[in-house]
Design brief:
The protein is an alpha/beta fold. Strands 1, 2, 3, 4, 5, 6, 7, 8 and 9 form a nine-stranded mixed sheet that branches. It is built from ten helices and nine strands. The chain is globular and about 55 Å long.
Length: 258
């Protein structure tokens, strides 16, 4: 029996078959042995099932059935997870080699830390690095002000905290991770490890970061007001500034895919 903590990785999936195999291999080829890998597909109509079945002998569990979207799929996967440490990796993103081993090592050596996260590169649909996420140390106070700085694919947290603050709110389409970060930060210290690139986030024309980015900040404001935030808070000001800058941001995003 392994003495390493069991790590549960969840991949929510829907019609991303052209990227899914790379995602799966980035998990299965990690140099950390004690991984429980779960894929929750929403009933894809592309080649997703063919890709999953190719690797099903190495999966702890998988399912392909209609669901209520990404948030629902992640919750479903976490309900199946039995690891001490958990994370989710979307079906078009990838882990860097050694990511899970390094994250587990830090959490084992620092039991007071509930979540650890590293750096993240942006890649295009061909896997070419096209940018870098602005990761930085944050905490509940800074999160509530709109300074998130947590790259979701590079974040790993403890299951006992998930059981305390979860599940993800299924009414969120985009900011379910921000909502989770605030709840985790209210209960534990979040730790950023600069210089540790643990994942790559794929930007492509079918990804919701490109197609639905305008839904993120309104959902973040829902968290703000739900938790007693004021209308003149910094996060509200950032929302309006971002709204004013939206035409330029959208133009720049479209330019990346020409």
């Amino acid at each position: 029996m392994s003495t390493q903590p069991l790590v549960s990785i969840i991949t929510p999936s829907f019609n991303q078959g052209k990227f899914l195999e790379e995602t799966i291999l980035s998990v299965l080829n990690q140099d950390y042995e004690n991984i429980e890998y779960i894929i929750v597909d929403g009933g894809s109509s592309d080649n997703t099932l063919e890709v999953i079945q190719k690797y099903q002998s190495r999966l702890a569990w998988w399912v392909s059935e209609p669901d209520k979207g990404q948030t629902d799929a992640i919750n479903k996967g976490f309900n199946r997870a039995s690891g001490e440490i958990i994370a989710w990796l979307n079906s078009d993103d990838v882990y860097a080699p050694g990511a899970i081993r390094e994250a587990v090592k830090y959490l084992v050596e620092n039991p007071q830390i509930g979540m650890v996260y590293g750096e993240l590169d942006f890649i295009d649909e061909h896997g070419r690095v096209i940018g870098r996420f602005n990761a930085a140390q944050t905490d509940l106070h800074r999160l509530r002000r709109g300074f998130v700085h947590i790259p979701q694919p590079s974040a790993f947290f403890r299951t006992d905290l998930w059981k305390k603050v979860g599940p993800l709110d299924p009414s969120f389409f985009f900011a379910m991770d921000y909502d989770l970060w605030t709840r985790l930060a209210a209960n534990t210290e979040l730790k950023y490890l600069p210089g540790k690139t643990w994942a790559q986030f794929r930007l492509h024309t079918d990804g919701k970061t490109v197609t639905s980015d305008d839904r993120c900040w309104p959902e973040m404001l829902r968290v703000h007001y739900r938790d007693g935030g004021k209308p003149w808070a910094p996060i509200v000001m950032k929302y309006w500034l971002r709204k004013l800058a939206a035409p330029f941001l959208n133009w720049n995003r479209r330019r990346m895919f020409k």
